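MEST protein: structure, please.
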Amino acid sequence: MKEWWVQVGLLGVPLLAVYLHIPPPQLSPSLRSWRASGTFFTYKDRNIFYRDSSGAVGSSDVVILLHGFPTSSYDWSKIWEGLTQRFHRVIALDFLGFGFSDKPRPHRYSIFEQANVVEGLTRHLGLQHHRINLLAHDYGDTVAQELLH
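Here you go.
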């Protein structure tokens, strides 16, 4: 009789193979809508998802929303409309490795790189000379601190 661990291993390998090839679940209608209302820009050959909405007339304020871990820009979906009533422009992105943005592997992710991605987005949108408000939570707080530094 073979060792028990060999039998478990022989059974486990096909199960793992099946698991890894199971397609991801379908997106909910609200997530499909969120993705459809956004677009992508390229940062160092990586596709970064962002959403950009014009809002309050008469305001010149821009706000960039920085999401938490391990989520995405969709964190802001329930307050998006309220923010567009307050700010002239509301922008949210999915950090590299999150949400609809590229997830390169292997890759050494860093807060500094995420801050550079946000700066790249501001350049892409022509906002480098505008006053920008940051609204962040969780992981985004750390990225915001790096941007402020």
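Notes: The beta strands are 39-43, 46-54, 62-66, 89-93, 132-136.
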